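Escalated from tier 1: iron/sulfur cluster holo job.
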Amino acid sequence: MSRGGLYVHLPFCPYVCPYCDFAKWPLRHSQAKRYLDALDAEIAHAPAFEADTLFFGGGTPNTYAPADVATLVERLRHRFAPAGFLEASIEMNPDPNLCTETVFAAYRDAGIDRVSFGVQSFVPSELATLGRRHSPGDVATAVARARAAGIANVSLDLIFGTPLQTTASWRASLEAAVALAPDHLSTYGLTIEEHTPFADWYARSPEDFASNDLEGDLYALAIETLVAAGFEHYEISNFARSGKRCAHNANYWANGDYLGLGVGAASYRDGVRTVHTKDLAMYCDAALAGHVIPGDDERLEGAERLGEAVMLALRTLEGVDVVSFARRYRVDFHSFYRPVLADLHASGTLEITPERVRLTPRGRFVANDVCGAFVTYAG
Ligand code: SF4
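Tier 2 regenerated the structure:
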């Protein structure tokens, strides 16, 4: 039986942000109810899987009533983790109406022990630009309520490269985040996704968006500020207090198996990557009828499978453990990737020892290019 992380997608949002291209829809109660029924049906028909961790992503999972989330956790535990989850996380919008004491108490009682708030910025004008309706003060309230309920692990997500952002405003956000003493922080560079209002804005006025140089400066500032505040920069976009790394995501980066449930959810099991349809009606119809969920699947083999594993491992502080790699994939890392390693070492982006290969501090700024070199290398 396959074993690893369990991801559940809850795709409804109280409002839709202009930069977002996730599988998400503005909340409609009848649709949201039908979706829960579809998830139940998918759970009943899902393959055998042993889950160590649980992650509710979205969408905005806390648009659902806390009792619905608690019932869902119970079903998932019963089906995939009879002994309980090692870590159970939920993404949350920090809107105070969606982050009441009752919500956190229900989550805690259900066994959710990690909450991740979509903060994005602590600067009101940037929140407005991003279409977010919460205030910086709402985040402080939500964090305090989570802690008061006894939820042990609080994470904050921030976005840099927001239009018209400056290094000073980004510094203000980072400092405000640190002041709330989170256990974990994620910092993501804004990406312009096709078919979003931000893509139209970018087409009209690209000068409003961060240049590559500014993005690099903002990322450097995040690393400098958060490391100085005692966070470990354990993955390209992620920072944690000691012992507070996200176990669910660590499994992704270790190229572990995971099972994704819900519309648009991805799974990776026994070398096969599957992605469910992003069509909400199609997903619900198939799940409720007990049919296989439409989507794509692809078996990763040979150099492609290796490249994927390297790309994921290089995102982490530890990088590629060469001995484990040889044991797991039966390939001598240094021999197989000799030409790639030589090029990247010469460019100063990779630190290479007999036991380990990882990004240099400089390599973190061009991680996509470095990882891409492994992904496209055919041997
Ligand atoms: S960014 Fe989050 S809250 Fe905003 S529309 Fe996307 S999923 Fe919903």
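The first helix runs from residue 29 to 45.
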